[in-house]
Amino acid sequence: MTRAAVLAGVGSYLPPRRVTNDDLAAAMDTSDSWIRTRTGIRQRFFASEGMATSDLAVEAGAQALKSAGETTADAVVVATMTPDRPCPGTAPTVATRLGLGGAMAFDINAVCTGFVYGLATAQGLITAGTAERVLLIGAETHSSVLNPDDRSTSVIFGDGAGGVLLRAGEADELGALGPTVLGSDGEGADLITVRAGGSRQRLSGSPPGPADHYFAMQGRAVFWHAVTRMAESCRAVLERAGRRLDEVDRLVSHQANLRIINHLADELGVPRDRALVNIDRVGNTGAASIPIALAEADAEGVLRAGEHVLLTAFGGGLTWGSTVLTWPGLQRT
């Protein structure tokens, strides 16, 4: 049989600090109505003082391992745009704290598409025989890079982590990852960015401006890029998988904005009630958004064994990607 990467466990973690729209409205020129109308978000969670991305990742990784009934992995991959430090990567720290020291461990930064890029990477490690089990975690502490004076971004993003354990298996098993379609367009690098901190700014000869250390996004342009690119990659991956759009039981897109999720479903002709939505409760958690949504939906019994699931994301870079799988029957813990 063809060797495949099979989803064996899921887990998620949200930090303890719950921030409502009213909390934000007390600190900036916004309102609960303004935020809900434009984003669909009513609350999000921020890391407490002293927490870092690795802290969130460890919690989600531990839950994914527990869900799979496993205690080991050969590789730990962390998808994040908010690492603990520019150097070294966050994944080795996470691996060691999970008792997986010695395993290969590295970060991926494809911004909000990081988890889908990570699935393709984990799939490659497993199908090549380099690893038997890969722990993939998407984790973000967006609160560390949000500009409190920019309501266009600071009301959207939240912190959190989600993870999956992938194991070697066979292509006809429930949970086996199907083909993946990935893409990028560097012409849009300035649409979603943090300008300061990298070599481009440090070697420019000019000091960074006050806002350059914070996350910035051109929302209107990003909206249409996101819908278009995710729809294109969804159609392409379904064609490769030999599936039709009317066979999609669950659409799980990056939780960027409720309007984007709805427009994407409409563009694909997938009924909106088949799209998983948790952005109202957790905000946009970047690379963590898809695994958090999967973990919550599985725990609530929304995802059922045998359902055809379509995953898709769009993020900075610009980057995008989609993949498919048939949902497995996971252990409930």
Automatic annotation (TrEMBL):
<dbReference type="Pfam" id="PF08545">
    <property type="entry name" value="ACP_syn_III"/>
</dbReference>
<dbReference type="GO" id="GO:0006633">
    <property type="term" value="P:fatty acid biosynthetic process"/>
</dbReference>
<feature type="active site">
    <location>
        <position position="254"/>
    </location>
</feature>
<dbReference type="GO" id="GO:0004315">
    <property type="term" value="F:3-oxoacyl-[acyl-carrier-protein] synthase activity"/>
</dbReference>
<keyword id="KW-0012">Acyltransferase</keyword>
<keyword id="KW-0275">Fatty acid biosynthesis</keyword>
<keyword id="KW-0276">Fatty acid metabolism</keyword>
<protein>
    <recommendedName>
        <fullName>Beta-ketoacyl-[acyl-carrier-protein] synthase III</fullName>
        <ecNumber>2.3.1.180</ecNumber>
    </recommendedName>
</protein>
<feature type="domain" description="Beta-ketoacyl-[acyl-carrier-protein] synthase III C-terminal">
    <location>
        <begin position="238"/>
        <end position="327"/>
    </location>
</feature>
<feature type="active site">
    <location>
        <position position="112"/>
    </location>
</feature>
<comment type="similarity">
    <text>Belongs to the thiolase-like superfamily. FabH family.</text>
</comment>
<dbReference type="GO" id="GO:0033818">
    <property type="term" value="F:beta-ketoacyl-acyl-carrier-protein synthase III activity"/>
</dbReference>
<keyword id="KW-0443">Lipid metabolism</keyword>
<feature type="domain" description="Beta-ketoacyl-[acyl-carrier-protein] synthase III N-terminal">
    <location>
        <begin position="106"/>
        <end position="186"/>
    </location>
</feature>
<keyword id="KW-0963">Cytoplasm</keyword>
<feature type="active site">
    <location>
        <position position="284"/>
    </location>
</feature>
<dbReference type="InterPro" id="IPR004655">
    <property type="entry name" value="FabH"/>
</dbReference>
<keyword id="KW-0808">Transferase</keyword>
<dbReference type="Pfam" id="PF08541">
    <property type="entry name" value="ACP_syn_III_C"/>
</dbReference>
<dbReference type="InterPro" id="IPR013747">
    <property type="entry name" value="ACP_syn_III_C"/>
</dbReference>
<dbReference type="GO" id="GO:0044550">
    <property type="term" value="P:secondary metabolite biosynthetic process"/>
</dbReference>
<dbReference type="GO" id="GO:0005737">
    <property type="term" value="C:cytoplasm"/>
</dbReference>
<dbReference type="InterPro" id="IPR013751">
    <property type="entry name" value="ACP_syn_III_N"/>
</dbReference>
<comment type="pathway">
    <text>Lipid metabolism; fatty acid biosynthesis.</text>
</comment>
<dbReference type="InterPro" id="IPR016039">
    <property type="entry name" value="Thiolase-like"/>
</dbReference>
<comment type="function">
    <text>Catalyzes the condensation reaction of fatty acid synthesis by the addition to an acyl acceptor of two carbons from malonyl-ACP. Catalyzes the first condensation reaction which initiates fatty acid synthesis and may therefore play a role in governing the total rate of fatty acid production. Possesses both acetoacetyl-ACP synthase and acetyl transacylase activities. Its substrate specificity determines the biosynthesis of branched-chain and/or straight-chain of fatty acids.</text>
</comment>
<keyword id="KW-0444">Lipid biosynthesis</keyword>
<feature type="region of interest" description="ACP-binding">
    <location>
        <begin position="255"/>
        <end position="259"/>
    </location>
</feature>
<keyword id="KW-0511">Multifunctional enzyme</keyword>
<comment type="subunit">
    <text>Homodimer.</text>
</comment>
